[in-house]
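Q: Given only this backbone (47 positions), what sequence would you predict?
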């Protein structure tokens, strides 16, 4: 769980950085990565 949280925060920081730089494609990929880790965290909590 701690690993998923760390990876989620890294993806969030990357998304913010990409948005600031105007790199839209990388921004969306970072958002998808954030969504993946969020779903994994929810699945771990549910079980």
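A: Predicted residues:
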């Amino acid at each position: 769980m701690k690993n998923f949280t760390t990876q989620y925060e890294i993806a969030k920081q990357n998304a913010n950085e990409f948005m600031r730089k105007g790199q839209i494609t990388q921004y969306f990929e970072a958002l998808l990565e954030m969504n993946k880790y969020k779903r994994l965290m929810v699945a771990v909590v549910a079980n």
